[in-house]
Amino acid sequence: MSPVETDVKTLVIDGKEVSAHAGQTILEVARENEIAIPTLCQLDGLSNVGACRLCLIEIKGSNKLLPACVTAVQEGMEVVTSSERLLKHRRTILELLFAERNHICSVCVSNGRCELQSMGQQLGLTHIRLPYRNPDLKVDASHERFTVDHNRCILCMRCVRACAEIEGAHVWDTMGRGINTIVITDLHEEWGESSCTRCGKCVQVCPTGALFEKNKIGADHPKSPDFLPYLNMMREAQ
Questions:
Q1: Distance CA 157, CA 18 (A)
Q2: What is the reported pTM?
């Protein structure tokens, strides 16, 4: 056996002793042991980037909160995934996401099928204490099948990663810095004029109403990102 297969780590998550292989992340091990950690940017089948920071966890001996999706397990770790401190941080992060763009659930095409909306409900978010920025962002409906509404984007980068890692097209990228960052196609061409292959994978992985199929809303607009691990498995088999 290789060293990776035999290098087993033992750690404690929320008081439960668990084992993991070297190189696994805390998020992976937690899910294997049915310990829920919230996240929006992470999606099985895509690389982990730690963009949303909702999966922050506490580790004994460290004052820092670390993202579980990109933090590798270590022998003897003692991890806390749920506490008042973590809940406060996660609610604040969600408030920042809602306030940064124009997330008005009642008029959004993904109302009822939005991961951001569902996360707010799960964490008991009833109102936003922060002032809304209300940016004047573009809606690009130039594509024959899809629309991108930058007002609904949370910069999770799922579309960028799916296009690059799964489709191999590298159409999507980001432009700008900080709160001025937006996702773009090619060199900021309109989506309909870009080199898009029309596969729709980016739309399927989008957690909000930022990318959606035209003429479909709410219950008529389901997204199915579960195809990613299957595609990766088939690719490896070949």
A1: 31
A2: 0.90
